[in-house]
Amino acid sequence: MVSILISGILGHMGKNVAELVATDPDTVCVAGVDLHAANSCNVPVYTSFSDVTEHVDVVIDFSSAANLDNLLAFAEKTGCGVVLATTGYSEAQLLQIEQASKKIPLFKTANLSVGINLLQKLVRQAAAFLGESFDVEIIERHHNLKKDAPSGTAFMLAESVNQAFDGEKQFVYGRQGLIGARDKSEIGIHAVRGGTIVGEHEVMFAGEDEILTLSHSARSKKVFAAGAVKAAKFLCGKPAGKYDMQDVLA
Ligand SMILES: NC(=O)c1ccc[n+]([C@@H]2O[C@H](COP(=O)([O-])OP(=O)(O)OC[C@H]3O[C@@H](n4cnc5c(N)ncnc54)[C@H](O)[C@@H]3O)[C@@H](O)[C@H]2O)c1
Question: CB under 8 Å to 53, separation ≥6 — which residues?
Fold first, then answer.
């Protein structure tokens, strides 16, 4: 049985994870951490990791980048694993995450869906096959409450495309004004926000007289919750290191 603490338990994703953990015979939620205390959950909800007394195997984090220091300090102190699902980290924080993974088992991905992880491979293959003669543009669409833009997944897909070009492409975010002809070195990334869109990613390869589009659409947040729980089970008992969805699916 994997003992899970949900960080951000009162948020949209936190609630989805709590529901799923409750129905999974191999997992149990022992506590939650959030900005506010609450008794609407069946487990204690703390406002600080320092108040947690329960034994935790893995923390599933869907909170905010601001929570990183406390979360990593707790994991390093207790030796538990961390499924880091939150997005929007700064460069300095990404370095901090890298350092932490030398001490604790740490799973990180900007997207927990199986489909997106396959899409990552497909766009890399397509970019390698189509080469310089096709322009690559990435369009992501999310709900109007999403805080960071472009999405972590859009970055992940752009990085995958760029691997086919030995990392030489430049990311260009949106376009405005008299920008002139498109430069061959660009990968355009565009963020659309509106309504309750769960998460859509489209990678367009535009060539002369033909367009190839590879896309993924998440229809419910449950897909991310399922990936998080799968990752937590995978991580439990693993040695320190950095893991991602490709490791889990392998
Ligand atoms: N990796 C993925 O597949 C994936 C999928 C969906 C969402 N996300 C990311 O997960 C995060 C949460 O998404 P959401 O839609 O549930 O957001 P949300 O705003 O609904 O929930 C976030 C929760 O975290 C809490 N929180 C915020 N800052 C905190 C802090 N410093 N300490 C403790 N708790 C804090 C909030 O009170 C809230 O309850 C976002 O970064 C989002 O981009 C990742």
Answer: none
Does 246 have pLDDT greater than 90? no
Instruction: Give the count of beta carbons closer than 10 Å to the beta carbon of residue 89.
Output: 19
**Ligand 1 binding pocket includes 13 (Cβ within 6 Å):** yes
Average the pLDDT over 100-110 and give the result.
95
Residues 6+ apart with CB under 8 A from 27: 1, 2, 4, 21, 229, 232, 233
Q: What confidence category does residue 39 fall into, taking pLDDT thresholds of 50, 70 and 90?
A: confident
Task: Compute the distance between CA of residue 94 and CA of residue 48 in angstroms, rounded to an integer.
Answer: 22
Find the 31 Cα to ligand 1 centroid distance in Å.
16
- CATH number among 3.40.1180.10, 3.30.360.10, 3.90.550.10, 3.40.30.10, domain 114-218: 3.30.360.10
Domain segments of the chain as ranges: 2-112+222-249, 114-218
Pair 234, 243: CB distance under 8 Å = yes
- Six-digit token pair at 243? 């893991």
pLDDT (average), residues 37-55:
91
* Average pLDDT value for residue range 220-225: 94
Ligand 1 nearest atom to the CA of residue 47, by list position: 33
Q: What pTM, to 2 d.p., does this model score?
A: 0.87
The superfamily in CATH containing domain 2-112+222-249 is NAD(P)-binding Rossmann-like Domain (3.40.50.720)
The number of residues in the chain equals 250
- Of 19, 33, 63, the one to substitute when testing ligand 1's pocket (max ligand atoms within 8 A of C-beta) is 63
